[in-house]
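Re: the 287-residue chain
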Amino acid sequence: MQTTNLIIQAADVPTSALKHLHMLSKASNIGALQGIPHQAFSLNGAYIGTQHEVSQYCKSEKIDFGFIQSDTTLSDYKLLAMDMDSTLITIECIDEIADFINKKAEVAAITEAAMRGEIDWPQSLRQRVALLAGLPASTLETVYEQRLKLTPGATKLVAAAQAAGLKTVVVSGGFTFFTSRLQARLKLDYAFSNELEIIDGLLTGKVLGALCDAHAKAAHVQAIAAQLGAEKSQIITIGDGANDLAMMAVSGTSIAYHAKPKVQAEARYALNAVDLSGALPLLGWQD
């Protein structure tokens, strides 16, 4: 009979919370997980029928949780697909670019609405990019060098996935200028995003070719999975915005990372209390 483990994580998990969750989940024993920069525990033999009660308690205590099959290992998977902005990196690149023409607040407001799923994403991207017309293309390098930072835990997550034999991909509604550099930096196998049109060293306010929108994101993930012979259960997706929902739907394990409410509601797991390395215990990884 298949058993489940309850993974709980936070910067600090109080002993009282650990004991309460042990009782609440009807777990047989508790194991501490090592190798990540926060506290994580596996409550082994937990009863999945307690998920509602566990969820309510963990949300009240700001603890991340997830039930996994006890025999899950990272090497069971074949593909890890990640969003870029506010997932693999800490910023929204287009908002930072717009800051150089004093339009960050205007662009960021549109970005937020699009990520919440309140407005049409392709229309919102074209609207935001149009505001960048006339900006020197050198601004992109400035943003990359001075403002772009990897999300804490990103390097560890990617390295662990690669060591376990998974192919890794960044699938972004952002721009190739940044995804290509991240691909080289993290040795990712694939990168998909949008290409900004540049003429005479200036942004034209247009995007070249078809957009890497929600549908395209899902299609890219499915195409790579087909090449790898990966089943849905062997695909992991991580994102934060509404335009990630389609690719999450074609994966067996979807993780909402510090995500919008709509995304958290539909993803299999949600991480809010820990960094990106918190995905690893949910995938059966152990140091």
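The first strand starts at residue 4 and ends at 10.
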